[in-house]
User: Fold these one by one.
Assistant:
Number 1:
Amino acid sequence: MDIIRDTFPLGFRDIDRLDHLTLAAAFDYFQEAAISHAEILGVGRESMAQTGQVWILSRMSVLMERRPKFRETVTVRSWPRGWEKLFALRDYDIRDASDIPIVRARSCWIISDMEKHRPLRPQAVMETLPLNEGINALPSGAARLESRNNLVKTGERKAAYSDIDYIGHVNNARYIQWIQDAVQPELLEEAEKMRLDINYLSEIKSGETTDILCAPLGETGSFAFEGRKADGQAAFRAELRLWRDQAGRDTGA
């Protein structure tokens, strides 16, 4: 199965007050698709653990060009895309009932040695998987984000039970909820198009407190974020861009 597909109606838990799919819900869908596809392809959690390896999400970019609504039927797809240097690539999209992609994404994963906690070259694993050459969901996605010196603390989050996944650290989709909660609700609700780029830099474990810092970018309706742990180490960096309509007019933030 080169590309995994799952078709279903959007659930009530995945929309906001104005009946729009949220970014965090899209990340949840993509996470489930990646995990399920890895299992089918023989490189899932247990198979990798037998060789002392684990998948770690390093970067992800999601472009939501239209936000589907409650009970709208969508198809979530995901597929491996080969590798670049130390990164294994995986693409995703969400398609509407007319088979038009309305959400597109690209992720970069690191294959890490479970004992030494060091990245391994991905070729040995990725060469056994479909390359899906030419099937690019978001070719310009998943870039490295730089630290900014104008960030201001807007809040903090303490990693609790519901934040932690089976690996023992904050789940990648939970970071997106934290970012959403740092933005004025009206801006997110009124945005008809949005893009989020995020770099996962260091794990956050249960009980750790993370400061959420934010600053506006040069574009109106755009923000930079950083999650910073108590020791000053950056846990993640992200950039969020919001547009009010399909023509790309901004939110007026």
Number 2:
Amino acid sequence: MSKFSGQAVSWEVNSGVIELALRREPCNEIGSLTLEELEKFVAALDGLQQDAHALIIYSSLKSGFCAGADLRELYRRSQEMERAAAAKGVRDYLARIHRVMNAIDAAPLITIAAVHGVTFGGGFELALVCDLIIADKMARFCFPELRLGLIPGFGGIPRLKRDLGNAMVRDLLLTGRSVNAMKAQQIGLVSQVVSEGAVLRAARATAAQLGKFDRRTAIAAKQFIKPIPYEELQQEIDIFCELFTQPAVEAGLRKFVESTDAQPYLP
């Protein structure tokens, strides 16, 4: 399937570059619909990568790259089931998310996250899957999960540890505060910062540059410098699921769902 247009994502191949667009209003929250369409993308990836050397993931929405998990859906499901059943449902959901994230992480392509605006929680984790993050100057990165009584669950902690020093990892994880694009570049999270509205153009230019080199060499280099921390990723799922059964999580999710703020995911 070389081209797809769904409710949450779309993709196509242009000049040897796969472009995966996030397009679910209001800010690309990752729920069951988005996950199903991302699974379709991963299933199609073997065929797509035969004619491509790079992958760009970006958002077609003005609101930002991705606000993270669909917490309203998570809360609704937790209320509809007994606690044990809800916990099993969450574990199954996380296992599916991790399969998607790991497949993109390990893909024999150079992957680029082109981010702008809100890049929080699960959206931040999706960006961390990619080999390069290019951000426009209005992008902000944050792990707000602790205010819900949780930790990031889509693979964020092991991948952030892979990319950054532990001091910054602890700061982002434990304080829940956001960092802007310039700070993200200073700490080595972002490779390029560009002007507002220019991030997709910059990502395309970078992908064109990547196409000048031997693909096998590029993939060998990627595999050498970017190992996937499978054991720690599984530990993250276990810790998340253990925390999910605690009363603090239900209270945090309820507070989020009942919020009247226009953007309740902002810290």
Number 3:
Amino acid sequence: MLIDAEKSGKRLDVFLADENSDLTRSRIQKLISEGNITVNGQRTKSNYKLRTGDRVDIVLPPPKDAQIKAEDIPLDIVYEDEYMLVVNKPQGMVVHPAAGNTEGTLVNALMAHCGDNLSGINGEIRPGILHRIDKDTSGLLLVAKDDKAHLGLSEQIKEHSLTREYTALVHGRIKEDSGTIDAPIGRDEKDRKKMTITQKNSRNAVTHFFVTERFDKYTLVRCSLETGRTHQIRVHLSKNGHPIVGDPVYGRKKEEFKLNGQLLHARKVGYIHPVLGEYMEFEREIPDYFEEVLKKLRGRNI
């Protein structure tokens, strides 16, 4: 791909992450270090600043055999065909293996359920994974069984045409019935495990919210994603003065409910099937522990 004036000045890895929603920033950096991404035919570094007229080439190596243990973990499969799945992930389950979490992940369960029928585009530790939700967030995820389905769905994610709606309970009473938070998100320089709103090495992020129900000190909201950045809803709502209840990273230190994570649920996903060409949409209501908190709050309002 050729770099025009608009893209000139961007870091190579940031540019590629913006242009390729199916490749994570860490995967891109690894490809650069291994020489699989070149600029003008030459190896370079992740922090190379692009110039107008530069030619960027990407060669994706064939996926390695995943050294992942297949585990017979029950899956709540909402939809499945020969090309893809829609899975309802429970709170507490990590999506894919990483340091410290090599077992019990969604990928371990998918390996047992699908065997070799998973896309290899995202590398050996993320077979079939198109997008992620946090360990302590529950809800719907898309999984690709082959590369064609993966590329088709990734393109919809990149074009922001995928429907993704979440339900969240936040601290405080939001006065507006709806609103939009448009603020770029990047890595927190003081704590690299956290994300924050920043102009430095960030990516644009847009979250639309709609008030569903108000309580004395809380608000139930529905969030619609225009972009899908790491921790996007959690960061946006927290910086807007309404952190998600139970969020151990961006929330309040003192919580009145005994929770194992944030009350955030990916309730709806809609997409055009990458092979069949028809629009499909699926929903799953909030889990029982989330509903129990709402029942307590509704009881106070009587």
Number 4:
Amino acid sequence: MNWTLVEDSAELSQVLAAHAPRQHVAVDTEFRRRDTFFPQVALVQLCWGAEAYLIDPLKLQDLTALRSFLTAQNQLKVIHSASEDLEVFSHWLGVLPAPLFDTQRAAGLLGLGAGQSYRALVAQFFDIDLPKDETQSDWLQRPLTAAQAEYAALDVTYLHPIGAQLLERATALHRLDWILEDGARMRPGGKPPLSKFKSAYRLPAAEQRALAALVAWREKEARGRDKPRSWILSDKLIMAVVRAMPESIHALADVDDMPKGLIRRAGDELLSCIQCASDESQPPVTQAILPPLSKPERGLLARVSDHLSDIAASLDVPPEILMPKADLEQLIRQHEQPTSVTPEAWSGWRNALVVEPLKQWLRNEVAV
């Protein structure tokens, strides 16, 4: 296995220019996120064939060429399970790689299984068991060890040929557009922070508003100070404040496990969140905090899931790739309340092959 360490912007520009005509490039990143909100980029790996290039972002003086490369439309960026890499590029460079070919998503849409890890794909395609020794390595340390460099190179030297085989299969099955469409819709970040509070639907309206306000305040603080959410305000402490609904600094300080430093630094802001939420003229938080489906709705969910399985079987695609359970639940809610927001993921090929057939099935089922 050959790899080259690139530590200079001019050298990087030469590498990118030399490989600009290639159809696709394998891309990966190494980063650290232990005491920060945003990932700290530590390494970018690129591969166009036999040789891996390890780009040291700590040494680059000019990022212009890298931004242009990542957004150049003539070359597919092959990334495995790209969500975290998108976070890295979005925060560090302010761009997202495009066009994006996510090999995990591609494997699912091409009938090779849902949620495949990179190691599992390498084992499937090449019958090789990749090492895991450097998974928890400190990628910000310099110089990189030989073991780190080899581990990082392996992340793209197998990814490139896997991408080539998946591209060939996708083209043969006329599903390349599906994969690229899904890739174009991918965005950094996971589920909304409020979604972690599963029992929030049981709270009174004022407490729901307080919860939403406190979570939004924490999100803003965590991003602004670049610190983990839990360092700003833990989920447990947020719920304790919501249940107490304090009306004064003294009452806020009496909440169990409330840090004195937090009271000094942000006590007035926390109280403001509570006070605004106590205003009964404010609307309830209906879209973000939803109760579980009712018993009849759960029965309908089971039946529509069976119909989704039939569609998935006809396409040789895992059902959860076509539509995850959360989306199925939203489909049922939307059938009951047609004004609710339609997810962006329901557009394009998925709308024609999955969403509209399921909606039609629901209309027929409910009519019967």
